[in-house]
Every structure is written in structure tokens, then in C-alpha cells.
Amino acid sequence: MLMRVDLAALGSSELYDESRYSDQGMHAVWREMRARGGLHRQVTTDGQEFFAAVRHADVREVLGNHTAFSSAYSTMLSVRGDGDAAAGAAIHLTDPPVHSELKRIFTPLMTVPATQRLAQGIEGRMRELFDTIRGRESFDFCAEMVTLPMTITGALMGIPSSEWPVTGRATVRAMGGTDAAESDRQRRVGLFEAHTTIMTVLGEVLEDPPAGDSVIGRCPRTAEVLNDPDRDVALLNAYAFLMGANPTVPQTINQMLILLAGDDDLWSWFTRQERTDQKFVDEALRWASPVNHVLRRTTAELTLDGTEIAAGSLVTAWLASANRDEEVFPQPFRFVPDRSPNQHTAFGFGVHRCIGQHVAVAGMKTFFDLWRESVRSVSLAGEPRHLVSNFLNGVVSLPLSVNWR
Prior knowledge:
The structure is a single chain. By secondary structure, this protein is an alpha+beta fold. It has one domain (7-404): CATH 1.10.630.10. The protein is built from 16 helices and 12 strands. A 5-stranded mixed β-sheet has the order 1-2-8-5-3. A 3-stranded antiparallel β-sheet has the order 4-12-9. It has a two-stranded antiparallel sheet with strand order 6-7. Strand 1 (40-43) and strand 2 form a beta hairpin. Helix 8 packs antiparallel against helix 9. The longest helix has 30 residues, at 233-262. The chain is globular.
């Protein structure tokens, strides 16, 4: 049950304060904001103003109108000032027509037919990972399955399997803090170390790039699109793809395991299915909403949902809020495994809708099929621990008790 929240008492920085996200209490805040309507004026802890779109229709407008809401600045509230160092160079930080040119380089690797060819390798690698925990009655799922996202995207990215554990840990750490008790300085140091680790791994791979049928193998072609000799465009795009690929799948799975472990009726329904279908995956994505928000900057003065916004303003689209919008989803706080239609925004919307969505869905279907095949029952062995981040809805520790088949 959601508690009613007094937004006036919270002040104007309730959506930015990352400490609030470690206890998963934000849905009550978003619900109150949706009820009030309009966009909401917010401020970061260092005084930067931004607007928050929390209703489904407003989120789709912000994400779908790339001419009015530009991506060529930053996609995360934590990166402001002069904007992201990769702004205008990395695929997710560009607008059409440049974005379209960059996208064409990578799209052939992630079409439905290309994903079908990848599926067999994904299943084989995931089975091998399952074998490392099979038979163990209790374990921390996050710790033991740190390479799970790389079983899906590692080969496609072109990253050697020997680097999968370090990149798996670093990508989660790079999204936020892993301990709510960390000081600001500790968190900044941790984030710096994580980003440095990722850049080092990707830089080494790019020195001897893999074949052109991998993402990193194609990244050097991005430098041909952008005349930008002052930045390593290939490295920036490799980084963008890795950071985009790793969070969505494992965090959706983590959130679903928490739900399955605590809902006997849902577990019973889940185990009766022969295969995991698209409806279940879509509802898992809606429910988990692994990315809380994305950031845009306005290119001109405009009005959205009755709110006047000046040119150059920062606007956040809260995907997690949109995915619980009562106007779009009947019983939004109930997991409905066969929900249809399901207009979730977990993959974004518009020209920046996730390029790797087919690969992500294939990976999740494979995981849930293997979990159903392998596990008789599952329960929580302790309290899950969440990432301290207003950007990623992440789980960093998930103690499970498992009864294997």
C-alpha cells in the first residue's frame, strides 16, 4: 500500500535527492505529482532548476519530440554544467540527422533476424552461468550473476569473456552508489574508479578492434560520421553502448525475482507456463522500470501540459512514473503477467527508443525459461539492497533461498 505524501513538506528537490531512492519509496511521490497535473519545477541540491514530466502523455511528448527536447546535452540529471563530455558525439547524446547516421551503423547487428541468430549462443552461455550456482541453497544473486548481462551482450559488444566480471561490476557502480551510508566523496571516488575501469577495458579492445559484426568493431566508423578530432568518438560510442546494454536486463530480472519470491500466486502462474512470452516481458519491464528518468534540454520556449518552459531548460522524463500512470494502466500497482495492451516506456520512445530492445527481450526470455526449468521454489534469504541513484532503479544485493529441480 502506498502512503500519501505531502509534497509541499518535501520541498522542491524531492525527485533529485538520491538518498530517497535506496528505500524504493518514490512511487508515492510520483503518484501525488501525477494527480496534480502539469510539469513540476524542481531543483538539484546545488541549485540547478529542472522540470519533471511524470504523466505518461507528457513523458511520451518529451521523448517523442526531439526537435523541441534535445538529447545533445546529457541524459542524466547527475551530469549538468556544460553537459556530458560525450554530448554531440555518442549515439544517445545526438539528435537527427546525426543520430540517424550513427544508428544506421549498428542497426543491422540488432534486428529481429540478427537477434534470432544470437539466441543460441545466449542460451549456451547462460546455462554455463547457471551451472555455477546450481544446487546451492542460498546465495546473493547479484554477486554470483555479475556476468549475466554479458552472457547476452558481451559477444555482441566484442568484449573478451575474461573482462566480463570487471565490466559487469563497473557498469552497475557507474550508475550510482552501492551503499547509502557512503559519503559524497566516497561516492565520487567510486564513480570515478568505475568509469576509469570501463574506459580502460574498452580502450584496450579498440586498440585491436574485433570483427565488424560486433558493436565495438563498428565503433571506429562513428568517427567517420563526426568530424571531431578533439574527442575519441569511437571510445565514447563503445562506452555508450556498454552502459546502455548492461543495466536494463539484469535490473529487470532482479526486480522480477524479488516479486516472484514474495508472491505465491504469481510463482504458481509462472511455473505453469511453457515458455516466456512477450506479454510477460513487457509487464516485467513496466514493473521494474530499470531507468527512472532521462534528461532533455529544450531548444525553444514552449508550453507542455499548461506549464511554460523557457528555451534551454532542463526537462526530465520520469519513465518509472509513466509506467504507473493510472490513466494508461488499469491497476498500475498490480503485476498483470498477460497485460495487453502495454504501452510501457522502459525502452524509451521516439527516435531514441532502445536500439538493442530485441536483444534485451531475447535475453530476458531465455533467463526466465531457464529459471522456470531449473528452480522449484524461491524465497528471499534477506533484505535486498538497492542502488543509491535517481537514474537507475538498481538492486546491488539480492539474497535468495532456492530449491532446485
